[in-house]
Amino acid sequence: MAEAKIKFGTPAKIPGWINYAVVPIVNLIAAFLISGIVIIIIGDDPIKALEVLFYGAFGYPEAIGYTLYYTTNFIFTGLAVAIAFHCGLFNIGAEGQAILGGLGVGLIALYFDWLPIWLIIPMAMIAAAIFGAGWAYIPAYLQAKRGSHIVITTIMFNFIAAALATYLLVEVLIDPNGQSPESREFAETTWLPFFHEYLTMPKTPLNLSFIYALILSACFYFFVWHTRWGYEIRVVGQNETAARYAGISPAKNIILAMMLSGALAGFVGVNEIQGVQHRLILDFTGGYGFVGIAVALMGRNHPVGIFLAALLFGALYQGGSELAFEMRSINKEMIVVIQGLIILFSGALEHMFRPKIEAVYRRIVGPQIVEAP
Amino acid sequence: MTIEAPALELRRINKRFGPVHANKDITLSVNRGSIHGIIGENGAGKSTLMSIVYGFYQADSGEIFVNGNLCDIDNPQSSIAAGIGMVHQHFMLVDTFSVLENVILGVEGGFKLADGLSKARIELERLEKEYALDVNVDAIVGDLPVGLRQRVEILKALYRGAEILILDEPTGVLTPQEADHLFRILDILRDQGKTVILITHKLREIMAITDAVSVMRRGEMVAHVETANTNREQLAELMVGRSVLLHVEKEPATPTETLLEIKNLNYIDADGVGRLRDVSLDVKAGEILGIAGVSGNGQSELLEVLGGILAPASGSIRYKGQEMCGSQKFTARNLRKIGLGHVPEDRHRSGLVLSFSANECTILGYQDSPEYNNGLRLDQRAMINACETYIEKFDVRPTDPMLKVSGFSGGNQQKLVLAREMEQDPDVLLVGQPTRGVDIGAIEFIHNQLIKMRDARKAILVVSVEIDEVMSIADRIAVMFDGEVVGVIDSKDATETKLGLMMAGIRDTDALDKAAP
Amino acid sequence: DDFKPAIVFDMGGKFDKSFNEAAYNGAEKFKKDTGVDYMEFEVTQVSQREQAAKRMARKDASIVIAMGFAQASAVEKAAKENPDTKFTIIDMVVDLPNVQSIVFREEQGSFLVGIAAAMASKTGKVGFVGGMDIPLIRKFALGYKEGVMYANPNAEVIENMTGTTPAAWNDPTKGGELARSQFDRGADVVFAAAGGTGIGVYQSAADAKKYAIGVDSNQDHLQPGTMLTSMLKRVDVAVYDTFTAAKNGTWEPGIKVLGLKEDGVGFSVDKWNKDILTPEMIAAMDKAKADIISGKIKVTNYMDR
Amino acid sequence: MESFQLTILMLDATLRVATPLVLAALAGMFSERAGVVDIGLEGKMLGAAFAAAAVAAVSGSAWVGLGAGILTSLMLSALHAYACVTHKGNQVVSGMAINIVVAGLAPTLGFAWFKMGGQTPSLNGDARFRSIELPFAEAAQNIPVIGYIYAELISGHNIIVYMAAAAVPITAWILYRTRFGLRVRAVGENPHAVDTAGISVDLMRYKALAVTGFMCGIAGTYLSTAHGAGFIRDMTAGKGYLALAALIFGKWKPVPTLIACLLFAFTDAAQARLQGVELPIVGTIPVQFIQALPYILTVLLLAGFVGKAHPPKAIGEPYIKER
Ligand SMILES: Nc1ncnc2c1ncn2[C@@H]1O[C@H](COP(=O)(O)OP(=O)(O)OP(=O)(O)O)[C@@H](O)[C@H]1O
Ligand SMILES: Nc1ncnc2c1ncn2[C@@H]1O[C@H](COP(=O)(O)OP(=O)(O)OP(=O)(O)O)[C@@H](O)[C@H]1O
Ligand SMILES: [Mg+2]
Ligand SMILES: [Mg+2]
């Protein structure tokens, strides 16, 4: 019987640090191992590559500035995708919403730059939110009222947003003295303060948006888990019938969640256009909207997770550019491969090593006997 | 005397789910050609045990013998091969498929479907005749009422040549007529030499149809008895571990003012079908109005219209004298504010959000009540406190308000929903299927709570397909048929036959009187 | 020995089959001829432009070439911060004492190949396929159109742009379809200024046995037999010369305009198109070239409208 | 007459453009009908396009290239299955990861092998699938209307276009008339039912994903060795996502999906002809708006005509037995 007891003894409970630290680290190691093999195949030194990558992301103040600057974008798009997820919606349109957000910033900065600084800066940020939210509103409305599949409509709206931006920058907003499809530079009063203006650190694109992203993350947590509106969004996302039973309108919440999502995505425009570029340009969204999907999913739609995932991708972007710079044989395609492998191992294959790690832990700790309740 | 090997024998089956020891050293022997009942409280481990027999789960240890032979059952395929069939509590059917397609899934007999389908069509016709299991084999399963879906499940098992048929709470969702029909089918099966294992919470069914009963409690097998040598009281006690009152003790009602008044209510669904037709009813403070009827005759729609979920086409609904139809206030949200409680028919579909924790579910529908809100903030402390109170008052197990509700058993989930709606102290309470899938210990408790509310001068409307239940708790009974109220009678005058006739749509009072004893 | 040239490619990457690749070829040639290696970076995110320019400066680059108009503001910032570093930007003007700006007169080269297109066309209809609709591409298109009209005032030019996202530079299937649609409508010569998308255009022309005109570098070898000629934009030469000048100490800031006169643009005559590009066409183009240089023919620069 | 001919030529273009969409969308149909979301269509196509072009260039045979394309796509599909079926990983993330890895890996390998900047050599001769003239096409050319349609629209495509055309009825037949199809549909609707019927859910999903990989391989091969003539990085240019949209648009059913693909392809062909055209009243519409037209049209159609879609019920959920 004793033997049987041991056999059926409840396995020891797996402590949090295994799940939240050991497993992700093992996943990352696996991704780097495979990347290393690819690097060996193309004839370079993987250990050095890893060193350069890490050094490039965190090794010196400028690197950290850049890493956090990228992180900022990923926080915005990660939160954007996550809030829609909480409402059971798959927002692939963060990219287009970010374009519109930038447009909102640009219009305010270009046409209202006579306003005082304390007014124009928040106005531009609000415009980003309104434009992003407005762009998300149409697919949301169509989903809520007409049942049009939001995945398709948001994909389509990405293309339409790109077309709109190209048109405006080529025909309307283009700097009359310039030749490239970008607007004139904004007045300095519209710029967000850079970190390096206030802290002793080298010049980097890191600006106030980063703090703003952190504040929004806290708001996100509070909103989703500690307000009735967040609660209602989650009910709709988990069980629409229950929502209707509880007097919660699915349509209203779908639209609300998507507009919040669009507004969050629009803030990429704040970071990029208002914070860094100081002029409207094309392609500033740089795929952040798509990577936001991976960030949200890897971060379990929770702001802490999203921050960590965003930091990972920020580090990859910045460390990757250092890598491309320092190592001749590693070009931008190779960086893409490494990023893909990390998404694969830490995202899609995240459960691959978990049982083995847990088994190892159990073997070390030994079984515990717990009686059924 | 030749000792025939039992059709099914289990020896020392153990199964754990994490910390829960769902099956502890279970031993069971089922005779061939018998109907064997298994009873036990919610979460006692019945479904788990049967899932092990069917190969859906694997036991941590133990042995399974079929017809005296040790069987290594590690997936449903080996169990099917051993002649075991199972009708799961939640049907394992593909809703978008036809009956025929569902039946042949897994035993298609060849790459091209056409051959298998025509073969199955013939075979099914035979089976349907032999076991009185008529269903239209070309119907889409999703369109069928539950009773018929269950027959599809039985056909599926028989088509696979099942000799031992396991049914997990088959009558939980059936109307009495459907249940009777099922029992006739089971009888035929037994007569044909098949073995049936029946899991149920309804002692009446056990007494009516089984040959032997096994009782489980908290993962253990606590008793085996011949049905002939036992009675309901004894079984109830074995199950719950204490004596249970099987009848509801209540004083006669003393109804006062009308709190809910429905006049000429009509509802037309999305397909343009009239689901409620000129329904007129009233419920007074201090009484329970029971709505009986075969499911699908408009009761569900009535509840949802009254709950502010569906919009009526015409008619009048007055809550506490306030006209609701056509009013801006006629939404589920506002009705709750006015003092309406609503326990939905289906706890999984609408009453709960399964992925939420218990405390989050306790505010479903009341999420904007000041009680749970502190400015912008949802007051987590208040939510947990409320949940703890409910858990304590309604004896919900487990007792942790932070647990996900999907981890609670059906009976305990039902208690959580009831607690939520009752503890808001509504003046009018709508209750759909109060005890569906709930064990008798919990049934007793739930019924007593409803009576207590009645005695606190609340108006209660209970929809149930269980005639027993309606008769024992309601003061007046309205019977619905095809969207109409066939009649309203005092429960003192109600008999099973009379209600049965009304449920079939017969209004003729003479016939009713004649039917009366 | 301590001469350290550097080059920053833009988003298309150094293998974009046109502009950046031409620069890459120039840099490679410089490396081969002088044995001096160069630093390089391919921009993938907009913010990397500035980062790259500054990093090159910090790494003590002797000369930094920035490819493409989009790098203007990055170069401006980096040049201001590093007044001792030499910068050369191609395709755009940045007015700073340590910046050299090289711009090409694409319209002049396009004008010439427009003449060839009009002369080679039997139907009097010719096509143009652009990548993204941006001013630079319109500059090509406008010069081309004027050249076509110059040679045949009755000719018709069918103009198509590939897309509105950067994917438009790398969509050969779409390019091929656009070309076919122009052929369907009667065009029989097509000029592509669309990066990698052009590959599909040339393939389509080869499949349909129509003529195509390459762009930036000499692309005649891609489909020998149907490549009428290529509009050359000597980015490779510009890069090579810039490095060389910087090495020899003859590099000078200011604006450098490379047109027909400077041999900065032109058309290709080689073994692959010698059977198609007739002496009459070459003569006509040479004459127009002389007239443009002398100012007799004015080709509109889209940017100066 | 001329506008008739132009219409036919435009439809002809529609078929060419629709081919990879149809193949990829039908490929996705198997995966999604089996309950596995596949946004990795893009990556599989790109991988196949690369492998096919590379192998065709080396071997000189388009058919060998096709084999390589299919094999590559199958391997990527197996990876997707390994992540989402075996390890219950998130299907969207897995698809995205595959897209990203392939987008980087194909040019990296291409550069290493061919030293042509990530491109493969231009394919010609047998290394490429050529147009097939159907019998009598030449002769029929001059018969008005019918003959012209036959010669221009029906005849003169490469073999993969015909494969795509055949793939629609074949897919419908497999899905609705065979045991495999029945099980695929069942596993996407209710995997528990499939499991209790004694069929392995995981194995079914692997099989369905294998079919997806197979068809995606053909779609990718088409891009680089039939429609185009060589691989260039990112050459799928979003076709995988468009195919997915067509699949959803077509409500996961073969014929409506085909129609959606044709619609996308047609608007694409039409917009090429609308660019710069002077329209009455509005004048010349900016190119960007013409280019956005297919997308705007799709949204309008979705909002106006296509009702609520009912996706396979179990889609996106990894199957976990002990629920
Ligand atoms: N898949 C599972 N994972 C974890 N625990 C489980 C699982 N299935 C069952 N359990 C636990 O095992 C115990 C027995 O459950 P089981 O479903 O067998 O009960 P039951 O007797 O069928 O109850 P009911 O009468 O409500 O149907 C319960 O405590 C339940 O919480
Ligand atoms: N993931 C899980 N973790 C813990 N227990 C679970 C889990 N899933 C199911 N259970 C338990 O398994 C048992 C059986 O689940 P099932 O869905 O059959 O519910 P049930 O109790 O029979 O309810 P009902 O009769 O209302 O359907 C329940 O007691 C439930 O508590
Ligand atoms: Mg059960
Ligand atoms: Mg139950």
From TrEMBL, chain A:
Compartments in which it is found: Cell membrane
Keyword Lipid metabolism found: no
Taxonomic superkingdom: Bacteria
Transmembrane parts of this sequence: 21-43, 63-85, 92-111, 117-138, 150-170, 206-224, 254-274, 280-297, 304-320, 335-353
CDD domains linked: TM_PBP1_transp_TpRbsC_like
Matches recorded under InterPro entries: ABC_transp_permease
Membrane topology qualifier: Multi-pass membrane protein
Keywords of the record: Cell membrane, Membrane, Transmembrane, Transmembrane helix
Protein name: ABC transporter permease
Source species of the chain: Sneathiella marina
UniProtKB/TrEMBL annotation, chain B:
Pfam families reported for this sequence: ABC_tran
InterPro entries the UniProt entry points to: AAA+_ATPase (IPR003593), ABC_carbohydrate_import_ATPase (IPR050107), ABC_transporter-like_ATP-bd (IPR003439), ABC_transporter-like_CS (IPR017871), P-loop_NTPase (IPR027417)
GO terms of molecular function: ATP binding
Keyword ATP-binding tagged: yes
CDD domains: ABC_Carb_Monos_I, ABC_Carb_Monos_II
Residue ranges of domain ABC transporter in the record: 8-243, 260-507
Keywords: ATP-binding, Nucleotide-binding
PROSITE patterns: ABC_TRANSPORTER_1, ABC_TRANSPORTER_2
This protein's name: ABC transporter ATP-binding protein
UniProtKB/TrEMBL annotation, chain D:
Domain of life assignment: Bacteria
Membrane topology of this protein: Multi-pass membrane protein
One Pfam family named in its UniProt record: BPD_transp_2
Chief place where the protein resides: membrane
TM segment ranges: 48-71, 92-114, 159-176, 241-265, 285-306
Entry annotated with the keyword Cytoplasm: no
Name under which the protein is recorded: ABC transporter permease
UniProt organism field: Sneathiella marina
